[in-house]
Amino acid sequence: MYNRGALSLAIITCFVVANADYLIGVGSHDMTGPAAGVNMMGYANMEQVTGGIHFQLRARAFVVAETDQAGARIAFVNLDVGMASQLVTIKVLERLKSRYGELYSEENVAISGTHTHAGPGGYLQYVTYSVTSLGFVP
């Protein structure tokens, strides 16, 4: 489906703005999946497949850190997908940990989906959502 690295890249390459109280970073990255022939997320119809790209799907990251407390921060990532999942969150946290150590964890990173059905399926670890896409779509 989409490159999980794109999610962590959106956080890692944030544009940072500073004021007296907070550091605020924002990032956006293209995470459009396969252009055609992939079952669309959530339709539960094996014949409902993508036939091209109408809009690019994006990952948008927002990081807010307090300037007076080292490490006090939160990261929110919004994905143009049907939903986020535990597996996606775990893989993003693994990549963040390899780059930033203990700075990001399940306590300060939230990943959310816009609940669109206009993107490809096959990226969740849950069987119910993978049946119509015939399993995982890399």
What's the overall average pLDDT, rounded? Answer: 82
Q: Kindly, what is the distance between the CA atoms of the first and last residues, rounded to a whole number of angstroms?
A: 5 Å
Count of beta strands? 7
Q: Give the fraction of residues assigned to helices.
A: 10-25%
Shape: elongated
Give your account of this protein's structure.
The chain is of the alpha+beta class and 138 residues long. Helices cover 20% and strands 30% of the residues. The chain contains 3 helices and 7 strands, in the order αββββββαβα. It has helices spanning 4-12, 86-100, 127-130, and strands at 15-18, 22-30, 36-39, 49-51, 58-66, 73-79, 109-113. Strands 1-2-5-6-7 form a 5-stranded mixed beta sheet, covered by helices on one side. The protein has a two-stranded antiparallel sheet with strand order 3-4. α1 (4-12) packs across α2 (86-100).
Question: What topology emerges from the helices and strands here?
Answer:
Elements: H1 4-12, E1 15-18, E2 22-30, E3 36-39, E4 49-51, E5 58-66, E6 73-79, H2 86-100, E7 109-113, H3 127-130
Parallel strand pairs: 6-7
Antiparallel strand pairs: 1-2, 2-5, 3-4, 5-6
Helix pairs in contact: 1-2
Keywords:
138 residues, five-stranded mixed sheet, 3 helices, 30% strand, alpha+beta, single chain
Give a nutshell description of this structure.
This protein is of the alpha+beta class. It contains three helices and seven strands, in the order H-E-E-E-E-E-E-H-E-H. Strand 1 and strand 2 form a beta hairpin.
